[in-house]
Design a protein that fits this description.
Layout lengths: L1 H11 L16 H20 L4 H13 L3 H14 L4 H13 L3 H14 L4 H13 L3 H14 L4 H14 L11
Length: 179
């Protein structure tokens, strides 16, 4: 199983959308083949060990790279059910809940994450995003402003506050799903 996990992870790595780097395009012919093989290998891992949350997380990120939000949501839910205390698991599951229209669940997941780490500006920003997607605009603004008090220079949080304010003024919300 270790070899399957390692190989699957290596195949997926270039395509995983992460905040600190540009991902390769998973929608090219080569990308689709490599992502499919990576998912296949990691699926072997989770069938052998249904508690292997990192494999579920990577499967979710792979589906996310293909903009298959339904499959990403399922994989991240498995990872979250196994390891709800991991911030990157909660973050990805919350985002995919938004993508599949389960905004109340997104808010719940974000609230649980913030309760565990109330001074983590990124998690508080995620709560603001979940609240915005759930159309709880006043609460979204309050959470986003709280995140800015924790990390006043954070560009992502500043952009989210601008988005919340625009929606409060009547603009339609944007699509918050990774493309």
């Amino acid at each position: 199983m270790d070899a399957a996990y390692r190989k699957g992870s290596e195949l997926l790595w270039p395509y995983l959308v992460l905040a600190d780097r540009k991902a390769s395009d998973a929608k090219t012919d080569v990308g689709r083949k490599e992502v499919a093989e990576g998912i296949r290998l990691l699926t072997v891992v989770v069938k052998a060990n249904p508690q292997h949350w990192p494999a579920f997380w990577q499967i979710g990120k792979a589906h996310q790279a293909l903009a298959d939000h339904t499959s990403a949501h399922v994989a991240f839910k498995h990872a979250y059910d196994i390891n709800p205390g991991r911030p990157d698991v909660a973050r990805e599951y919350m985002i995919e809940c938004i993508c599949v229209g389960e905004t109340a669940e997104a808010v719940h997941v974000a609230e649980v994450a913030v309760a565990a780490a109330p001074h983590d500006a990124g998690l508080v920003t995620n709560l603001g995003l979940a609240l915005l997607a759930d159309r709880q605009l006043s609460a979204a603004r309050a959470a986003t402003e709280r995140a800015l008090r924790i990390a006043p220079e954070d560009r992502i949080t500043r952009n989210l506050l601008s988005e919340v304010e625009a929606v409060q003024r009547g603009r339609q919300p944007s699509n918050y799903c990774p493309q």
